[in-house]
Amino acid sequence: MSFTDESGFAESETHRMMRETAREVASGYGDDYWRDVSDGMEPTEFWQDCADAGFLGVTVPEEYGGEGMGISELTTIVEELVAHGSMGAEMLFVVNVVFGAVTLTNHGSETQKEELLEPLVNGDLNFCMALTEPNAGHNAPNLDTFAEEQDDGTFLIDGSKQWISGVDTADEMLLVARTTPKDEVAKRTQGITLFLADPQDENIERRELDVGIPTPENQYELSFDGYEATEDDIIGTRDMGLYQLFDTVNPERLVGAAGAIGVGRNAIERAVEYANDRVVFDEPIGAHQAIQHPLADAYSKVEAAKLLVQKASWLMDETEGTEDMKKTAEVSNMAKLRASEAGHEATDVALQTHGGNGFSRDYMIVEMWKGSRLGTVAPGSSQMMRNHIAEHTLGLPRSY
């Protein structure tokens, strides 16, 4: 939806066409396909269809093979794909389009853009990001992975990362490492650098983590032991990587939020259909307010959260400058909080509506429920979203 002064809340023709195309792509992949994906099958065909539709390059400038659009279009696509059954598609877009295309577009060198953006847009190159660590978690300035510069100008990187998605299929990795010790920088948020890394390098050891949720990508713990990077591998400005990462983190949260809206819509639609069809004591269960009211509440919350996602996406595309970006971050955190909570509530209500059948994988509701629960933890937990709102919007003292 476009929030321009001219159109108000009217959906633009571009967004309408994108939604229609996303529905067409999603319609080619039913529940059986996504059950297989959650069981370990790579969604190769789906991803190529997204590439062919131009979805992977929606935020990439036209000179690099993209569509030259913005986050509003990206969140529109993701929401519609998930709303029509593409379970976990938001994770694929976060890892490849946000971590890869958005980061490189904003901060990559000309060489990096020329070499990597077109393959990303075409679906020929997969990306991942290594940020979170066992001892840091949400506290990114406290990360231990260190890139020590050598006399020849190269960097030797040692450390560990945890909960890293899609490493096994990735061709390139966005690696976040400290290049200047914390006690040598003016602010703890300085001294961190973004590197382009080879996730298949022999000096990176990976261990798959056993998770109990359906995802289109496997999760890993990584160990870096003398991984070598060069100055040409640096993305953006050395020691200022955390500030540059903000341009990646906010879109990450909004794409995740769009996925939460999509899964909420999908779950409610399935629950309404089931409530109309399921007859107990000679009438549909949907005739009872005990079924109606929770669904009505969940639907209204999803729709309200959707407006916040749209507003934050618009702000991200239209505003520039420090103060504007501060406001964008505030609304993005509110959008992520409300969308992930509303999406999970919708799947929970849908599960309750289905009763015992809701726990059967044949109905997919329990898969949605588990996936939406992840959304309240990552990317960025609900608690951290509330911390940000309290401190930066309400002016309360820092709590962490």
TrEMBL record:
Residues 240-392 form the Acyl-CoA dehydrogenase/oxidase C-terminal domain. InterPro entries: Acyl-CoA_Oxase/DH_mid-dom, Acyl-CoA_Oxase/DH_mid-dom_sf, AcylCo_DH-like_C, AcylCo_DH/oxidase_C, AcylCoA_DH/ox_N, AcylCoA_DH/ox_N_sf, AcylCoA_DH/oxidase_NM_dom_sf. Keywords: FAD, Flavoprotein, Oxidoreductase. Residues 12-124 form the Acyl-CoA dehydrogenase/oxidase N-terminal domain. Signal peptide: none annotated. CDD domains: ACAD. GO terms for molecular function: acyl-CoA dehydrogenase activity; flavin adenine dinucleotide binding. This is Acyl-CoA dehydrogenase.
